[in-house]
């Protein structure tokens, strides 16, 4: 198997995604809309399969219920959640080339050696003895360099002078950055005909709040007892400052979130439980184990008691695909406060009334799509030719089987069409009778179809077909009436 080349893999994937109908740029004929993508015929199948696997894994159990809350919610929801006040990123612009950056991401992208150099240049222009000494005593310890750098960026007396030392990554100029400004990421719109402040509503930036405000509705109607969870899949919108890396950071995306309500003293155990479960989910769907890791947070969000990210090693580096948080009783308490409605749970066993703690698992469906896509992409040499293959787990593959009559005569198309009609009742299948069989196999490899069923001369004699497996390319001879069971066993594992 050939090692994937990191540098050009995203470009290749974007191109394959477009060519084979996985993902198109939104509004392409008008030049596209930044940060928005459209899922084509095969993409929508892959995305749907990812969501379906998540839904089965998370809700086909006794203690988790489903929900589909509306995207538009009462504006007070976003005051209570803290989004109106806090859901912002620090943004800076380069006055020279007009590029815009998210400050934290820009800082992360500068390596420690360069940061040290910036700090040294900066120290020759300031008077604070304390900082000068700290900078002069810096060795090669990356953590220490990062700490000093971040401390200075957060210090309003010094951040401007430190920013003045940094070269713009786009045009290379120095001293051209504006001051950092906070930019709220929520999309605003108006409900009803009047465009005034009393009519402002937001496109939800996360699905979680729809779950929190429905906590008692779901608990009461489903007669759940703690611990139990509520799961939801849906669109979220963020006016991201920089959108890049294809589907990794977009302005419209889908989330798969589950909020698990627990007794406060059980929160840590459930946090650990969900951390393990969620990583297993990615692994069980075939994601390369060595490209997955946890990243525990030291610096926690205002609502969290513990937080970890599941990260995937993308060609451009490690990136979060899911966050797992112990959100304490912050959310429900805030909604109690802002709505003046009790969201307490009555524990029949202990006869206590309390606000539950929440363990959140929050994954991006579209970001997971990108991770599964990258992970499945291989270029392999077969008989002196390169074959491109997407090695999706059969459960995720957009097309489960292709039906290929070897030639368009001798009764083969008729048998093939019959097999197609039978299998179509249970599986997404594809019929292809055009071109040499080898080329037809390659076309299916390229979109990740796990099984190719070929109808040949032997089929006419004994009602068997060959089933070629995508990854091993080994062919099995299977009786036509066994095909459905064969595929079911292979797909479900
Ligand atoms: P980041 O730090 O990358 O902006 P975040 O920590 O703000 O992400 P969360 O608010 O925890 O992300 O959202 C949960 C999940 O939603 C993320 O793990 C990611 O998979 C997905 N997600 C968040 N923002 C985006 C986006 N702009 N585009 C695509 N997916 C996203």
Care to give the gist of this entry?
The chain is α+β, with helices and mostly antiparallel strands. The chain is built from 18 helices and 23 strands.
Written description of the protein model:
The chain has 18 helices and 23 strands. By secondary structure, it is α+β, with helices and mostly antiparallel strands. It has 4 domains: 235 residues, BirA Bifunctional Protein, domain 2 (2-Layer Sandwich), CATH 3.30.930.10; 39 residues; 47 residues; 94 residues, Rossmann fold (3-Layer(aba) Sandwich), CATH 3.40.50.800. The strands form 7 sheets. A 7-stranded mixed beta sheet has the order 3-9-10-16-13-12-11, sandwiched between helices. Helix 6 runs antiparallel to helix 7 and helix 6 packs across helix 8. The two termini are 24 Å apart. 34% of the residues are buried. The mean pLDDT is 94. The chain binds adenosine-5'-triphosphate.
């Amino acid at each position: 198997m050939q090692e994937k080349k990191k540098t050009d893999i995203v470009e290749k994937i974007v191109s394959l995604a477009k060519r084979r109908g996985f993902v198109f740029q939104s509004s392409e004929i008008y030049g596209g809309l930044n940060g928005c993508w459209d899922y084509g015929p095969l993409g929508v199948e892959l995305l749907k399969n990812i969501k379906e696997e998540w839904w089965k894994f998370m809700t086909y159990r006794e203690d988790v219920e489903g929900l589909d809350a509306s995207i538009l919610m009462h504006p007070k929801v976003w005051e209570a959640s803290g989004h109106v006040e806090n859901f912002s990123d620090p943004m800076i612009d380069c006055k020279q080339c007009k590029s815009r950056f998210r400050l934290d991401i820009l800082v992360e992208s500068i390596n420690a050696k360069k940061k040290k150099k910036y700090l040294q240049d900066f120290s020759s222009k300031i008077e604070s003895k304390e900082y000068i000494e700290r900078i002069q005593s810096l060795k090669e310890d990356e953590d220490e360099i990062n700490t000093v750098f971040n401390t200075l960026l957060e210090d309003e007396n010094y951040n401007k002078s430190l920013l003045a030392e940094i070269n713009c990554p786009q045009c290379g100029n120095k001293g051209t950055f504006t001051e950092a400004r906070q930019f709220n990421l929520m999309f605003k719109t108006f409900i009803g005909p009047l465009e005034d402040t009393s009519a402002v509503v937001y496109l939800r930036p996360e699905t979680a709040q729809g779950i929190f405000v429905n906590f008692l509705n779901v608990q009461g109607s489903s007669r759940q007892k703690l611990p139990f969870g509520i799961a939801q899949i849906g669109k979220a919108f963020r006016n991201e400052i920089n959108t890049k890396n294809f589907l990794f950071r977009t302005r419209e995306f889908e989330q798969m979130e589950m909020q698990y309500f627990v007794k406060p003293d059980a929160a840590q155990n459930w946090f650990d439980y969900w951390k393990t479960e969620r990583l297993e989910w990615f692994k069980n769907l075939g994601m390369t184990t060595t490209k997955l890791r946890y990243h525990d947070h030291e610096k926690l969000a205002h609502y969290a008691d513990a937080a970890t990210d599941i990260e995937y090693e993308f060609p451009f580096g490690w990136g979060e695909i899911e966050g797992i948080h112990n959100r304490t009783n912050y959310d429900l308490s805030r909604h109690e406060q802002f709505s003046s409605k009790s969201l307490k749970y009555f524990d029949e066993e202990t006869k206590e009334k309390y606000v539950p703690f929440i363990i959140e698992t929050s994954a991006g469906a579209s970001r997971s799509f990108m991770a599964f896509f990258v992970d499945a992409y291989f270029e392999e040499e077969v008989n002196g030719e390169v074959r491109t293959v997407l090695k999706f787990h059969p459960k995720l593959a957009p097309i489960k089987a292709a039906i290929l009559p070897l030639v368009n005569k001798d009764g083969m198309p008729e048998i093939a069409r019959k097999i197609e009609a039978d299998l179509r009742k249970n599986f997404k299948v594809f019929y292809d009778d055009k071109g040499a069989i080898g080329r037809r196999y390659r076309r299916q490899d390229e979109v990740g179809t796990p099984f190719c069923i070929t109808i040949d001369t032997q089929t006419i004699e004994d009602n068997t077909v060959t089933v070629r497996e995508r990854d091993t390319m080994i062919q099995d001879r299977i009786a036509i009436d066994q095909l459905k069971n064969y595929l079911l066993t292979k797909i479900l594992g």
